[in-house]
Amino acid sequence: MEEELNATYLTFGGHVEVHKYRYLYFMVVFTVYILIICSNSIILYLIWNHQDLHEPMYIFIAALLLNSVLFTTNIYPKLLVDFLSEKQIISYQACLVQYFMFYSLVCSEFLLLAAMAYDRYVSICKPLHYPTIMTKTTISIFLASSWLLPACLNVGITTLSSNQQLCSFTLKVIFCNNSIYKLFCVPSRAISFYGMVLFINLIVVPVVIIAFTYTRILVICYHSSREVRRKAAQTCVPHLLVLMNYFILIAYDVITARLESDFPKNARLIMTLQLVLYHPIFNPVIYGLKMKEISKHLKRLFCRD
Fold first, then answer.
1. Distance between CA atoms of 3 and 129, rounded to whole angstroms?
2. Global pTM value
3. How many other C-beta atoms are found inside a 10 Å radius of the C-beta of residue 89?
4. Among 136, 140, 177, 243, which lies 20 to 30 A Cα-Cα from 60?
5. β 89-91/170-171 pair status
6. What is the C-alpha separation between 280 and 76, in angstroms, rounded?
7. 8 Å CB contact between 104 and 97
């Protein structure tokens, strides 16, 4: 009981007319959440269940889709509860957990995308060396690093944040992100520096690697036949566009938390929703349904005679 009385609670102030449209918000977000879970889980099941999909490319796709499921589960259930609650609040401890999970999984997504890009690069640019480079050990190292490295590094910044004194208790967002920095009584240079180091190493560097590898793939395919160029463009260009969109949204999230200027509430809500909506929905389509082998098994699953 004493722990409950001493708990610090934060209020989410980023909702727009939630009391007026609570049931509409709930139904839309609930539908999207079920769609995300089902679409990602079905492709995960197909990859796990079919031996011919136990290849590096599909294993990385499965890891990416699993990451999307974890990412949305960290955000959406709390959103659904808030829509139906009179007050949109969260304890500071729970907020830090959500903050930690959010950025750990975001960084994991960029590292997994980088691993996928490297796999495609080796497959297309060094096909003879592919079996010796992309071994089970290499894949395991990539997967472990993609999840453990962001988690370990984000523990540090979360711990630093937990030790800060709060002078404000209202977040201008709908879930816990970098906005918690604006609650501190005194801005922390250590946290700001640590955060930028994480952003550069776990997001900017993977984005540069991905852009470089896909560019190399497109350059090599450009000198091949017209059919090869067409397939390369159909594969790489959507991946790069989605990647850049996600990078811009994450950069917006990181930068706005450090700016003194305030953004309109509606604009902030729209940008935040894009951040937690696009990738979990688009990943199964771009990295799953558009893959020939996965699409084939999907048709067999739903079109049985």
1. 58
2. 0.90
3. 16
4. 177
5. unpaired
6. 11
7. no
